[in-house]
Amino acid sequence: MSLLLYGIVTENALPADFDVSLLLIHADGLTAVTACCEQADQDVESVLAFGNVVERIHQRTTIIPIRYGSLLPDEAAVVELMAEKASHYRRLLADLEGCEEMGIRLPMAAPEPEPFAAKKPSSGYEYLLAKTEIFGGRTGGKGGRRVGSRPDGAIPQALRRSGLVCWEAHVLGQLSGV
């Protein structure tokens, strides 16, 4: 059976009866906190339970938390890992001593409002007119023209790209040229 690795602590930092569901493996002055596990489930409950175990350990001692889902095939593999990285783990534990971990959530910038967020168009014509505003055929304002008032009757390029050509052709009465 595989072992799910929760973290590395200094040897004897946790009492043997800390949690009967955990297996403490000692090597090179370090202790790996593990649990028997066939596979690391990817559901929310499993990840939260994993985080709770790491949190409980951290409340008692300094821990190097290991990424969720780190499985090792057996106890010998855990001992080998700790032997390979013992000096690195000791240095890291010394650096982390007395430190706290904080998670900070920052709100993302608000997305740009939808063009129709304030006022929903009441008709298809208003909808397409607003789309023309967004995609290049600016209407109203200084020097602007309304879609139906183009002197040359040209179909705006933005409408061609957006698939609205047939609508404008109908509105302008130019079905033959489209």
Explained architecture:
By secondary structure, the protein is of the alpha+beta class. The protein has two domains: 3-96, no CATH class; 124-177, no CATH class. Helices cover 35% and strands 13% of the residues. The protein has six helices and five strands, in the order βββαββααααα. Strands 1, 2, 3, 4 and 5 form a five-stranded antiparallel beta sheet that branches. The longest helix is centred in the N-terminal third of the chain and has 17 residues, at 44-60.
**Computed structural class:** alpha+beta
Number of helices: 6
Percent range of helical residues: 25-40%
Ends apart, CA distance between termini: 70 Å
Shape summary: elongated
Question: Radius of gyration over alpha carbons?
Answer: 32 Å
Would you count the extended β strands for me? 5
Strand content: 5-15%
Q: Estimate the mean pLDDT confidence.
A: 77
Question: Total domains, how many?
Answer: 2
Topology diagram in text:
Elements: E1 3-10, E2 23-27, E3 30-36, H1 44-60, E4 64-65, E5 71-72, H2 75-84, H3 86-96, H4 124-134, H5 157-162, H6 165-172
Antiparallel strand pairs: 1-3, 1-4, 1-5, 2-3
Short summary of the structure?
By secondary structure, the protein is α+β, with helices and mostly antiparallel strands.
Q: Which tags fit this structure?
A:
single chain, 178 residues, alpha+beta, 2 domains, 5-stranded antiparallel β-sheet, 6 helices, 5 strands, 13% strand, elongated, disordered C terminus
